[in-house]
Amino acid sequence: MSKLQELADKFWNFVAFGERWKSLLFVFLGAFILRAHTLFIDFIHVDVVTSYILAKRDLAGLPFYPNKNWLNHYLMKWSILFFGDSVTSFHLVGIIFILLTMVFIILLAQKIYNLGCGIVAAMLYGFLISSYNTEFTATNGEVLYNLFCMAAFYFTYLVFFEKKFYNLPFIAIGIYAAFMIKTQGIFSLLAILSYVIFVFPIYRGWFKFSPQRYYLFIAFFSIVFIMLLVIDWNWTHFVFYDKLRAKLYPMVSYVANRGFNPFMVIGKLLLRFIHFGLYHSMLWVPGFFALVQFFKDREKTEKEAFLVSVVLTLFISVFAGGARLSVHYFIPVLPPLAILSGRYITLHISQGVFSKRAFLAFTIPVIFFFAWNVKDAYIRNFAPELKQNEGNFAYYFRMVALASHGEYLLPHKSIVPVLEYINHNTPADWTVLSWPMGTEITYYSGRYSAGYSYWLNEGALYAIVQREKGNIDFYQKYQRDFIEDIKRLSPDIFVDVGGTSMIRKVLVYRKKSDPPFYIDLTTAPIIRFGSFATLDDFPDVIRYLNTNYEFKGYFGDGRIWTRKK
């Protein structure tokens, strides 16, 4: 037996079958250490910094509206009050939530399988959630609401399998809390309903006819229901009345801006599979084999069917965002998937070849990303010039190998000229309105934003998409509303960073003349599925700015107007 084989066997036996307190200490301490770098980096992801800016507006008594849902906002606000005035305080909250999520992974896995499976599953989730790019290491909504989702799934198990009905309120609390972190938290309810509708009646013998006939009925009913919703949304408006449509409009436009372009979906999905296959193979590959084995087995337990229904529903929910398929959309799948993978691993680690390969597939990505993250913490605190003067090799390596497009650690070099002008040539009490995204300009300039929406790209993209479809009235109305917003907010500084290499990636839309995709080494991402929009797509807005503001010029690829005094 080779030393590597011996080490692999000892590792898996220690985690799955060793002394429980030692295994648990290793798993939880390891998860903390692997994410500890976030306590030394404020700017990991723009979403988190946006939440921080909005919490600061709230604490300052300024008007605001949370960029996620209210519980996410309050957690950010409380982290500032209790742990210190820094984005890193929220990262500490993220670490706590991950550790608590691991607790519920262990509890649910122990109920369905055994404690050893639960500890392995918790390790897979706790270690690998910190072993990828910044969308995984950031304290985003998915990282937070995973805790409440797993709690809801655990209490669902107690209600349906152990008949402890007093846990029903805890299911509701878990679902509601997940939703109040981020709207997509409602997928936890859909996961539970998938069990109640597709699994529970079959295993409890509620129907005398075959499961196939039952599922055909469900499919027919679902198709008719969806058709009725589409008809009501577009024409009758009985359910989707005007006020409800207005509330749902941002979500609809968010999906519609990217649509369901098959080239985009297939291309992004392929990239995700490649990356997850490289870095998270011990989550996805054993989980896939466990699913295959489940559907092959004639005797399927209801407990395992419950877990499988949750995993499949959460995976399908990844596509609810249309062709976006952002990396963080996959995070909610990981906790229940880790249980399936943990089960498969514990059943096969006695096989020498599997044990060694699994050990390498797990430890190599963990060690690599730990070193990478320590490097980032060092650069952020001691050598910022290494980020600003990043070479082409490091830049393209991050983009291709890690799908990391540069918006972390420090302001991207493409917006530095804009920040330098604002910081050195304008009064500190001037307000700023940055288009199409305002987080980095607001955060690094130290100015207050004239408004409290930092993501103006989605509305702009939707208007341009409507223009491409021939809906000129909507497009012109957007321009009028945009101008009215500028009048109402009256910013001292108007900044356009839509043309910078960092920001323009959020302004991609499809023209009829566009090819299926573009490959351009000068852009981020390198492969894009449409053309870039700019502020020049709204000529009425440009004319208003040139009339009422003083154009200061181009600063890099950004441009600045200041209000005429």
Distance between the termini: 80 Å
Number of domains: 2
pLDDT averaged over residues: 91
> Helical segment tally?
24
Helix content: 55-70%
Strand order of the largest sheet: 1-2-8-7
What portion of the residues fall into strands of 2 or more residues?
5-15%
Class from secondary-structure proportions: mainly alpha
Work out the radius of gyration. Answer: 25 Å
Q: What is the topology?
A:
Blueprint (H helix, E strand, L loop, with lengths): L2 H15 L2 H16 L10 H14 L10 H14 L3 H26 L2 H14 L5 H4 L3 H22 L5 H14 L5 H17 L7 H26 L5 H15 L5 H18 L1 H16 L5 H16 L16 H15 L3 H31 L2 H4 L3 H10 L14 H10 L6 E4 L3 H7 L11 H12 L3 H18 L3 E4 L11 E2 L8 E2 L7 E2 L2 E2 L6 H10 E7 L2 E6 L2
Parallel strand pairs: 1-2
Antiparallel strand pairs: 2-8, 3-6, 4-5, 7-8
Helix pairs in contact: 1-2, 1-6, 1-17, 2-5, 2-6, 3-4, 3-21, 4-5, 5-6, 5-8, 5-16, 6-16, 8-9, 10-15, 12-22, 13-14, 14-16, 15-16, 22-23, 23-24
